[in-house]
Amino acid sequence: MTESVARLRGEQLTLGYGKYTVAENLTVEIPDGHFTAIIGPNGCGKST
User: Fold this and answer.
1) Which of 1, 3, 38, 46 is deepest in the core (most CB within 10 A)?
2) Which regions span the lipid bilayer (predicted)?
């Protein structure tokens, strides 16, 4: 089995909206050849 290489990687990310922190110290890794989507209801802050 071959090891996949990360195409996109973010470390120690903090996400927030205004004065509210919604995720802290987040690490995200998307391997080469994969697709990732953020889904949720309208108005829940996906594009923030």
Assistant:
1) 46
2) none
Q: Are the CB atoms for 27 and 13 separated by under 8 Å?
A: yes
Measured distance CA(15)–CA(36) in Å, rounded? 17
Q: Is the pTM of this model over 0.70?
A: no
CB-based contact 9:29 (threshold 8 Å): yes
Q: How far apart are CA 42 and CA 27, in angstroms?
A: 25
